[in-house]
Amino acid sequence: MCQSIVTMRLTRKEIAEMIRSRGYRATPQRVAIYEAVWRAGSHPTVAEIYEYATKSDPSISLATVYNTLHLLEEIGLVQELSARDGSARYDPDVHFHINIVCRSCGKVVDYEYKPLDKLAKDIQEVTGFGITVPVFEVKGLCSDCRAENQETAIASVREM
Questions:
Q1: Residue 153's Cα: distance from chain center in Å?
Q2: What is the set of domains in the chain, with CATH numbers?
Q3: How crowded is residue 18: how many other Cβ atoms within 10 Å of its Cβ?
Q4: Helix 46-56 and helix 28-39: axis angle, to 10°?
Q5: Positive/negative CA dihedral, 34, 38, 44, 48
Q6: 41: Cβ–Cβ under 8 A, 6 or more apart, which residues?
Q7: Which residue has the higher pLDDT, 131 or 80?
Q8: pLDDT class for 13, splitting at 50, 70, 90?
Q9: Does the pLDDT of residue 3 top 50, yes or no?
């Protein structure tokens, strides 16, 4: 019933077709930036996307990254998420899923749960809201931060 999402790998040709299918030109910069969102890691920041994109095309400017991310969000290929520190992160998974966010380090993990589709439909029918960002967020502590917190608590007890 539940499973975690495996990062999808798209070819440049597939990326270009996705952009074209939404009525926009698939410039090499747009393709490189969208590819960077997928390959830069889990929910990358603008800086991480820029770093990855310029590896494949050094001519890409930071302004181009920002403009392209806004376009990709507008046409439904990425979702902008607010990070713990107030910065933006980008999620290329635009299907209904759960983002599990660590309240300590900010790590984000996608979790697919099939009944979310029905829940989203029910929410729309009952409230009349059209869901535009199909992501639910759950906050907690990742295993690394939980282990670190336990070590800190143990060290504090030993110091007493």
A1: 32
A2: 8-159 (1.10.10.10)
A3: 18
A4: 120
A5: negative
A6: 48
A7: 80
A8: very high
A9: no
